[in-house]
Structures are given as structure tokens and as C-alpha cells.
Amino acid sequence: MRKLFLFLSLLSTGVFAAPSLDHQVFDSQNQSVSLSEFKGKVVYVDFWASWCGPCRKSFPWMNAMQQKYRDQGLAVVAINLDTDKALAEEFLKQMPAQFSVRFNPEGDVARSFDLLGMPSSFVFNRQGQLVKNHVGFYQDNAADYEQELVSLLKE
Amino acid sequence: MINNNNKLDSIPSQRTASNPQTKKIASALAFASCGLFASNGHATELVKNVDDWKVDAALMYYGEQDRVQAIEAIGKAQKNFGDDSVLDLKLVVDSLTGASASGAVAQSDSQTFTRPSGNGQYKVAAGDTPLDDTFHDTRVQGSANWSQKLNPDWKVSGGVYGSKEFDYMSMGINAGVERGFNKDNTTLFLGTAYSFDVVDPVGGRPVALSSMAIRDNFTSDEAYRTAFDATRQNGSDDKQTVDLMLGITQILNQRWLLQANYGLSSVSGYLTDPYKVLSVVDNNGTSQDIVYENRPDSRLKHSFYVMTKGALDSGVVDFSYRYNTDDWDLTSHTLETHYRYYFSGSFYGQLHLRYYQQSAVNFYQPFLLADTPLPEFASADYRIGDMSAYTIGVKFGHRLSGGHEMTYRLEYYQQDPKNNGTELPGQLQNYDLFPTQKAITAQFSYSF
Amino acid sequence: MRKITLIAVSLIVVGLTGCTNLGVQPWEKGQLARSDMALDSEKLDQALDDHIYFSKEGSSGGRAFAGGGCGCN
After folding, report:
1. Which of A104, A108, B303, B397 sits a CA distance of 20 to 30 A from B443?
2. Which domain holds residue A110?
3. In the 3-class helix/strand/coil scheme, how is B63-95 assigned residue by residue?
4. What homologous superfamily does CATH list for B53-447?
5. Taking Cα atoms as reference points, which of B350, B343, B354 lies closest to residue B409?
6. Per its UniProt record, what InterPro entries does this chain match (chain B) (predicted)?
7. Contact between residue A46 and residue A58 where contact means Cβ atoms under 8 Å apart
8. β-strand pairing of B121-124 with B287-292
9. Can you give the pLDDT at residue C13?
């Protein structure tokens, strides 16, 4: 029994210590929700903060992607990492998001994803498998990012 | 060039935001105070849009008591191109007038000196420190720098620079490479610069340690002119500087970072100040002659610099220490700190303190003795003698709407030159050969 | 002088290896990303100060602008 418990806990740390959709974050009402609610879609998970310049540049692009590919099953989920939610709200007031915004003020999900920089994005296919990740947001590469999404949506 | 689409200029603070009541009062106050200043808060700030031109401009007045006065205007423009490139342009214009210490000592009788041009002379009253009052110059300097991110880890930069004043011209190029490590918590920097200067002094370069020709000692203008010309070398001379810098910036924790630099600078060519002289005195301290100074034609300098900077809830603070040493045996220690406090999200005050201490170069002498042979190198320039100096400054800044900022700065700078251990003969004991020098700077800056 | 260079280089190398344990996660740089925390946040003041001290004192330099800031992109 203890062995099984150990095995399960090992398994679970194995699951949670890697980029996956099996993570709990907060929604705008401060309710704990799982990223797995987006399973079955192509999920573009973005980590951002109010003080980060390239993050600001990525918002209009994420809005455009969500609008363009919603019907084909794309879910853009931007996870805010500000420790102070008020700053994130201030940012969102000025840069409204037309995609799902989640909050992880503790940064534990970011730690599991082992971010190398800000922003960082992770793309999951319809099976919930991690397919691609990017560090930073570069306007010059926006067409490439879009192409990746399009090919996953076609799968 | 106005940041017209920059709407992210309010900087909500963590403190006020965590207390809705305070926030309400603060925003009401901000609204009541005509809304010119961006509302509340200081600590973490929302990111700004950085794609437009960013311009900083400043006007500074520098005034020494009874000596040099200067006005300096400086403008800097910065623009981001795409995600990876930044262009920096800078233009500086300054104008200088007034007198500066010539290096000669005060005497019990009035003294007569020839102007550097050889045209005319000036008298210094008994007991006064000899100042050369012909100092006036205008300088224009421009520079351009480009920095380019190659990938998330590597960044390169390069720049050119040029400056011109009446008797001096300088051109330079620089290049640097930066590499981030450890999730960008550590940055290594390697930079190099080369500059080529042309020195073309008014009246020509003096012959090393030659005696100043004084019109009163000659019977005719021709005889004087011949003697003066004999103290001059034809044409201009140049000076070349190669700089190398190795630096590391380390993020210590969420609020503190540390920077450490090592700099190596090799200068060669004409390093003498063509306008500086030394008095040659007898055993009574009475001036027998005035000779033009002479410095070695190369200098190798090392500098070590450590700085730490911290983000406080309602301010910023930094401390730095610098150690310099060179093969002229000059060593110096510099301690400096800035402390900024935000009285509100849009208004701050800042204190600046600096202490500097240097030991003299090995050929520094406040005067020469008539009964000893002339050395190869000698200078009485207090700026390379034993000296301590301190600065105390205050600055106030207003953050205006649209990301604009306006600052005022006032500083007091005092230099206390010291005797390097030279025994003062006769009448020289009656005078302050190492007078304290006081200066004030006032500056106004605007950024948009 | 060569000795000094050697000491400086080894100090930096030792410092760098020690540094791998220091630092913060990318999302913890909010305070460091503040514009007043940039190493060149007062570049004009520094340029003006450096010019004064360069022309009034016997030693100069030491400061360079590298690293720091938000560390984004």
C-alpha cells in the first residue's frame, strides 16, 4: 500500500513537474480551475506579466489568433504571473484580452513549466501533448507562430 | 516624436493597490490636483510602449568660484527597431569661459606671464594664485550607437563618436558583446574602444620644460618673438587611446543587482597639458623662471568598479566603489551613492553623495627648485596631485503624463588639493599653494 | 600590472561560477524591470558628471552600461 502511494506520488510529481495541462490556476474570480478544461482544443499557453515589454507586444497577436481560429478549435490561455493582481488588472484595462486569462501569482505552475524567459509560450495539440515552446515574443516570427497553430488545427 | 499611443503611464503601487480605501483617496487627490501628473503609486510599474523615439535633453550650468564657468547642452534620442535593435544618438554642445590655475605659485610680488598664444601678457597680483584667464572654448560632440540582439543570449553593439573644439579634435569607435547566462541572471560584457585625438594648442605646443619668454625681458618685439618661437614646436600632435572593458552584472535577488567591471586603458602620444607651467624658485621661494610642463608620452591605466543597486518599495538606492591605478603611480578611490525617494508616484527627490581621493603622479611637483637639475618630466597641475574631493547633490523629478519626466539637479563639488610632502622654502610658506576649489552645478532635464 | 589583470580575470571567473546559485526566476523580475532600476536610468546625469570629473580629476572611467533590467526577450 505504501509502495503504491509512493509510486503514485512519484507519478504525480512526474506529471506536475513538466509542462502539461494538468495544472491548477486561478480565474478572474479567484476560483481555482484546471488548464485541462481546454483539453481537446489546440491550446496556446502564454505566461506573461504587466511589467514585461514583449508581453505587451504579444497581446494584439494573441487577440487576433483567438478571433481567427476560435471556430477551428484554438484556445489561447494567458497565465499572468504578477504577484499583485491589481497590476495585471490595470494592464488588462489598457490592453483588453479577448482570450482566456488565468492567474498564477504563486508562480508554481511557471516553475513546473521551467520558464527560461518572459514571455514564454507552450503549444499543446488536441491530445493535450506539448508540441512546441517559445521563449520571448518576436514580431518578426509571428507568421511562423501562426503557421504552427494552423498545422496543429488541421491535425 | 511624442509617445501618442503610450497610454500605460500610470504606475499603480503595490501598497496603495492593496488598500482600496487608500487607493480611492489617492486617486481622488490625483484627480483634484488637476490630473497633470500621472496618478498614484511607485513600486512596480506597467511596461511602456517602447517603439517610439525616446528623447532626453538637459541643460547644465557649471560654475567655479572665480574660475571656469561652463554651459553644457546635451540631447539624446533613442529608438527601438523591431524587437532586437536599438539606435542611440547623442549630441553635446558646451561653452567654457574663465580662468584656470596655470600651475605657477603665488609670490610676494606681482608676476607677469605670457599668454599661450604669445600675443600679449597678463599680470597676477601679489599673493594671488596665478590663473590663466584666456580660457574660452566651444565644443561640439556627437555619437551614434547601435545595439543588436542576435538571439536570447547574445547581444552586440557598436558605435562611433567625434568631438571638435578650437584646439582639439577627437574621433572614436567602440564595439561590445554581451552574453546572458543562468536564465539571464548573469550578464558578461566585453567591450573595446579606440580613439584618435589631435591636439593643436593655441600658439603651438611648448617645448618641454622650456622657459616662458616674457616681453618685458626683451628690448624689441622681434627679439621677443624669436625667443617665444624657440619655445614652440611646429604643427599638431596626436594621442591614441585603446580601452578594454570586462564586466559582469549579476542579479542577486528580486530587488538587488550587482555590477563589477575591470577596465584597461592604454593612452599614448601627446599627454602634456600645453597650457600648464611650473615655477622655478630659489631657496627663498622666490620665482626665478617659469617653465612649460612635460608629461610622459604613454600611460597605462586600470580601473575596478563595483556597484550595487536596489529597488526599494518607494525608492531606489545604489552604492559604488571604484579603484584606479596607473603607471604614473596615481591611485584613486571613489565612493558614490544615490538615494531616491518617491514622495508620490509622480514626484521624487534624490540625494547624491560622492567622495574621491587620489595620490599624486610620480612627476608631480608643486614647483621646481633652481639649484637642482631639471627632471625629465614635471607637472604642477593640481589635478594630478594629491587631492580629495566630495560632491553633495540633490535632484527632484516630476513624472508627467504621457511618460514625460522633468528633473532639476543642484550639486556642490569641492576639491581639496594637498601638499604631496614637498617642503616649502621661504616666502612660499606665506601662501596657500593648494587652494580649495568650489564649484556649483545646476541642471534642468526633460525626457519625452 | 600583468598580475593585476590576472587577479581581475580570476576574480570574475570565480564570481561567475559562484553566481550560478544566485538570481531569480524570469517571472520574478518585476522590481528589476522598473525603469529606475536600469543601469543607464540616469545616463545624461552620468555623462555630465563624467565630463566634469574627467576634466577635474586625475583618473576616469570604470563604469559601463551592460546587462540589468527586465531581461525580457
Report:
1. B303
2. 19-154
3. EECCCCEEEEEEEEEEEEECCCEEEEEEEEEEE
4. monomeric porin ompg (2.40.160.40)
5. B350
6. DUF3570 (IPR021953)
7. yes
8. unpaired
9. 56
Report if residue A109 sits inside a domain.
Answer: yes
Alpha-carbon distance of B436 to B390, in angstroms, equals 11
- Give the contacts of B251 (CB within 8 A, at least 6 positions apart): B184, B185, B186, B257, C22, C23, C24, C29, C32, C71
Contact status, residue B438 vs residue B64, Cβ threshold 8 Å:
yes
Q: CB-CB: which of B83, B263, B309 is closest to C73? A: B83
Q: Is A52 a catalytic residue?
A: yes
Confidence bin at B403 (pLDDT 50/70/90): confident
Contact A117 C30 (CB under 8 A): no
Percent of chain B past pLDDT 90, that is, above it, reads: 81
Do strands B387-399 and B405-417 pair parallel, antiparallel, or not at all (unpaired)?
antiparallel
Helix (H/G/I), strand (E/B), else coil: A154: helix
Render pLDDT for B50-69 as a digit per residue (tens, 0 to 9): 568 999 999 999 999 989 99
Residue of B47, B150, B151, B255 to mutate when probing chain A, most A C-beta within 10 A: B47
Rounded Cα distance, B359 and B429, in Å? 22
User: What is the distance between the terminal CA atoms of chain C, rounded to a whole angstrom?
Assistant: 39
Give residue B9's region: left, alpha or beta (phi > 0; psi -120 to 50). Answer: alpha
- How are strands ordered across the β-sheet holding A74-80? A32-34, A24-26, A100-103, A74-80, A42-48, A120-124, A130-135
pLDDT, one tens digit per residue, over B80-121 is 998 889 999 999 999 999 999 999 999 999 999 999 999 999
C-alpha grid cell, residue C73: 526577450
pLDDT-based confidence at B6, cuts 50/70/90?
A: very low
ipTM of the complex: 0.87
Look at A32-41, B28-37, B213-222 and tell me which has the smallest mean pLDDT. B28-37
Tell if the CB–CB gap between B46 and A135 is shorter than 8 Å. Answer: no
Name subunits touching C (3+ CB pairs < 8 A).
Answer: A, B
Kindly state whether residue A3 falls inside one of the protein's structural domains. no
Q: Which residue of A has its CA nearest to C33?
A: A51
Radius of gyration for the alpha carbons in chain B, expressed in angstroms and rounded: 26
Residues of A within 8 A of C29 (CB-CB) are 51, 118
CATH number, domain of A27, equals 3.40.30.10
Q: How near does any CA of chain A get to the CA of C27, in Å?
A: 6
Residue A90: enclosing H or E segment and its boundaries? helix A85-94
DSSP annotation of B427: G
The structural domains of chain B, with segments of one domain joined by +, span 53-447
Predicted confidence band at B134 (pLDDT cuts at 50, 70, 90)?
A: confident
**Is residue B324 a contact partner of residue C62, using CB atoms and an 8 Å limit?**
yes
**B209 neighbors B372 (Cβ within 8 angstroms):** no
Q: What is the SS3 string spanning B254-282? A: CCEEEEEEEEEEEEEECCCCCCCEEEEEC
* Touching partners of B (3+ C-beta pairs < 8 Å): A, C
Is residue A116 included in any domain, yes or no? yes
How far apart (Å, rounded) are the C-alpha atoms in residues A43 and A39?
8
Domain count, chain A: 1
pLDDT at B177 over 90: yes
The reply to whether A39 touches chain B by the CB within 8 Å rule is: no
**CA A7 distance to own-chain centroid:** 28
The set of cell numbers assigned to A9 is: 506520488
